[in-house]
C-alpha cells in the first residue's frame, strides 16, 4: 500500500510466466494490436498513436517531452509536487525554456495562475502538468487546464501515471494532446512499461520538427515503424515480450471490470480508508475537493517517529506504506490504494495495524473505533 508498485494481480503474474515468443511473431503482433485497442479504451481515446513505451513511466514522460519540445520552445510547466520538477528538467534537457507555475505541495494546480502565465507568455508552445501528483495525493483539473492551453494555442503534455484506471481520464473528450502513464500504479501490473497516447494535433508537431528528436530510442517517428498499424512492421528494439503479456492481461482485467466500475471501486475503498483514519484522529493534507482516491497523504501525528512506524508495519504486518517525498519528507505517510491493492481487506489490515502500532508507541490517537468506522463506510 505504498505509492506504487501496487499488488500485481495473480492473473498477471501467470501471464508473465508464459513462453517467450518472437517480437515479430504473428501471434505477438496480434496481441500488440489488442493491447493498443485496450489502451485506447483505458485512455478513452481513438488516437491511432496509443501504445506502450518499453520502459517505465519516466520514459513515457521523456517520450512526450523529447518528441514535442524543440530547442528554443517555451514550455509552461505546473509544479505542485515532485513530478512537475521532473518535467522542468525534461524541458531544459530538450533545449526548451521552462516557465514555472508553482503551487504549494498538497494543493491542485491553480487555474488562474496558469491563465495569467499563458497570457503573459503568448509565445509559449506547450502547457505541461501532472494530473495526479503521487507525491502529495492532489488531483488537478485536467479538463480545464487543457481548455486554457488551447485557448492560448498551446499543446498539452499530461502526466497520468497514477491516474490511469484509478480516477477519470478522458483523452478525447478533454482534448488532451499527449499523455503518458505507467503500469505499476492503478493498472496493477509489474513496473517497467509506459502507455502513451498522442493526438493528431500533437503528431503534426512531431512530424514537422525542424530537427531530429535527440533520443534515438524514444523518437516516435522510428518507434512507429514497429508499433504502427497498416504497414510492414520492422525491428526497432526487442520488445519486452513477457512484460507486454502482463500489460495485456492487466488491461483485459480492467475491461472486464469496466472503467467506471474501477473508478467507483477506488473511490469507495478510499472512503473506507478515510473513515478509519479520521476515526483514529489522523488528517489528510489535501482538501476534500482535490483528493485522489488512490493516494492518501496523511499527516504524521506530533512526536511520532515516521521511520519506526513504517518499519514496524513492514516487519510485523508485512505491510508497506509510503514515506513523504521532498518538502513532505517526515511530515506525511502516503497510503496507496491502487488497482488490485484497492480492496476492503487491505483497508482493514492497514487501519488495524496502524492503530495497533501507534497506540503501542503511545501516540495520541483514538482507539477502538476505527474498524467500526471502516465497516460502516464499506456498507454505505
Ligand atoms: C510513478 C510516477 C512517475 C514515474 O513512473 P516510473 O514508472 O517510476 O518511472 C511519473 N509521474 C508520476 C505522477 C508518478 O506517480
Automatic annotation (TrEMBL):
Residues carrying N6-(pyridoxal phosphate)lysine: 185
Q: What is the lineage of its organism?
A: Bacteria, Pseudomonadati, Pseudomonadota, Gammaproteobacteria, sulfur-oxidizing symbionts
Q: Name one GO molecular function term.
A: alanine-glyoxylate transaminase activity
Cofactor(s) named in the record: pyridoxal 5'-phosphate
Q: Which residues form the Aminotransferase class V domain?
A: 23-325
PANTHER family xref list = ALANINE--GLYOXYLATE AMINOTRANSFERASE, AMINOTRANSFERASE CLASS V
One Gene Ontology term from the biological process aspect of the record: glycine biosynthetic process, by transamination of glyoxylate
Q: Which family does it belong to?
A: Belongs to the class-V pyridoxal-phosphate-dependent aminotransferase family.
Native source organism of the sequence: endosymbiont of Escarpia spicata
Which residues are noted in the entry as substrate-binding? 334
| Top-level taxon of the source organism | Bacteria
Q: Which UniProt keywords apply?
A: Aminotransferase, Pyridoxal phosphate, Transferase
Q: Which residues cross the membrane?
A: none
Record protein name field: Alanine--glyoxylate aminotransferase
The signal peptide annotation in the UniProt record is none
SUPFAM superfamilies named in the record: PLP-dependent transferases
Amino acid at each position: 500500500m505504498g505509492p506504487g508498485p501496487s499488488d500485481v494481480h495473480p492473473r498477471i503474474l501467470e501471464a508473465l510466466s508464459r513462453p517467450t515468443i518472437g517480437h515479430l511473431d504473428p501471434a505477438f503482433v496480434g496481441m500488440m494490436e489488442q493491447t493498443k485497442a485496450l489502451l485506447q479504451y483505458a485512455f478513452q481515446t481513438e488516437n491511432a498513436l496509443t501504445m506502450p513505451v518499453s520502459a517505465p513511466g519516466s520514459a513515457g514522460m521523456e517520450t512526450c517531452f523529447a518528441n514535442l519540445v524543440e530547442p528554443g520552445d517555451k514550455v509552461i510547466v505546473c509544479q505542485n509536487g515532485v513530478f512537475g520538477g521532473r518535467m522542468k528538467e525534461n524541458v531544459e534537457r530538450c533545449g526548451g525554456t521552462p516557465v514555472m507555475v508553482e503551487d504549494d505541495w498538497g494543493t491542485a494546480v491553480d487555474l488562474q495562475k496558469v491563465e495569467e502565465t499563458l497570457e503573459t507568455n503568448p509565445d509559449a508552445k506547450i502547457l505541461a502538468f501532472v494530473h495526479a501528483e503521487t507525491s502529495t495525493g492532489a488531483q488537478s483539473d485536467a479538463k480545464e487546464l487543457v481548455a486554457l492551453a488551447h485557448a492560448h494555442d498551446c499543446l498539452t503534455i499530461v502526466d497520468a501515471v497514477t491516474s490511469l484506471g484509478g480516477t477519470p481520464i478522458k483523452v478525447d473528450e478533454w482534448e488532451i494532446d499527449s499523455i503518458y502513464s505507467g503500469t505499476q500504479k492503478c493498472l496493477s501490473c509489474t513496473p517497467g512499461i509506459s502507455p502513451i497516447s498522442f493526438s493528431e494535433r500533437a503528431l503534426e508537431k512531431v512530424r514537422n520538427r525542424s530537427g531530429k528528436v535527440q533520443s534515438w530510442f524514444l523518437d516516435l517517428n522510428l518507434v512507429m515503424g514497429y508499433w504502427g498499424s497498416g504497414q510492414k512492421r520492422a525491428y526497432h528494439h526487442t520488445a519486452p515480450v513477457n512484460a507486454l503479456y502482463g500489460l495485456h492481461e492487466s488491461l483485459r482485467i480492467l475491461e472486464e471490470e469496466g472503467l467506471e466500475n474501477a473508478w467507483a471501486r477506488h473511490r469507495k475503498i478510499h472512503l473506507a480508508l478515510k473513515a478509519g483514519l479520521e476515526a483514529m484522529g489522523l488528517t489528510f493534507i489535501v482538501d476534500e475537493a482535490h483528493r485522489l482516491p488512490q493516494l492518501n497523504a496523511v499527516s504524521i501525528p506530533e512526536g511520532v517517529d515516521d521511520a519506526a512506524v513504517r518499519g514496524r508495519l513492514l516487519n510485523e504486518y508485512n505491510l508497506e506504506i509510503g514515506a513523504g517525498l521532498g518538502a513532505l519528507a517526515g511530515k506525511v505517510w502516503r497510503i496507496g490504494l491502487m488497482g488490485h491493492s484497492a480492496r476492503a481487506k487491505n483497508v482493514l489490515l492497514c487501519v488495524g495495524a496502524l492503530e495497533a502500532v501507534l497506540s503501542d508507541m503511545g501516540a495520541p490517537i483514538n482507539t477502538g473505533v476505527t474498524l467500526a468506522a471502516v465497516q460502516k463506510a464499506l456498507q454505505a
